[in-house]
Amino acid sequence: MLLTASQLTKRFADTVAVSDVSFELAGGETLALIGPSGCGKTTLLKLLNRLIEPDAGEVRLGGMEAHELPAHEWRRRIGYVVQSAGLFPHMTVGENIAATPRLLGWEDGQTEEKTRALLSMTGLPFEDYAARKPAELSGGQRQRVGLARALAGEPELVL
Predict the structure, then answer these.
(1) Residue 86 confidence (pLDDT)
(2) CB of 11 within 8 A of CB of 17?
(3) Residue 20: left if φ>0, alpha if ψ -120 to 50, beta else—which one?
């Protein structure tokens, strides 16, 4: 299994946000979380990515338990598309996409090639968009840049 969540539970004060959630996801599969606002979808994603820690349960990616690695190393294995795009406003589109490859120590040429490919894949030509700031983009364009950034480090999983 690529991803396994076992009996995940998260409470905030007197509110149970996620209660005993378990599932398995094989490589190549897609899982959609559907439910009304406030039902725990975002909290579950944050638990999978270790942005918050569960009160109970565990997460495994490729057989490795989440706490076998420091949180920042765990997150580098997972692409995360933030609901509101979550782009760094002081960076250009190209710099936003290149952030993870640079953290991973990729060479400049490899990082630019990946940035170009991802912008092309998302319908945003490098020449027209790489130097723009997120504030210069529409909401849909920002979301596509967020997806490109999530894919840039070639993660095992994208949330």
Answers:
(1) 84
(2) yes
(3) left
- The number of residues making up the chain comes to 159
Q: Which two tokens stand for residue 65?
A: 């338990």
Token pair in block for residue 146: 């967020």
| Mean pLDDT for all residues in the chain | 95
Residues 6+ apart with CB under 8 A from 47: 5, 8, 10, 18, 53, 54, 59
**φ, ψ of residue 69 in degrees (nearest 5):** -125, 155
Taking the C-alpha atoms of residue 99 and residue 67, their distance in angstroms, rounded to an integer, is 24
Q: What is the pLDDT of residue 13?
A: 94
Give the Cα separation of 97 and 80 in Å (integer).
Answer: 12
Query: Which residues on neighbouring strands pair with residue 60, listed in sequence order?
Result: 4, 65
- CA 54 centroid distance within chain: 18
Short-list 22, 20, 1, CA closest to 9: 20
What SS3 state is found at 5?
Answer: strand
pTM value is 0.86
Half-sphere exposure of 58 (CA within 13 A, CB side): 8
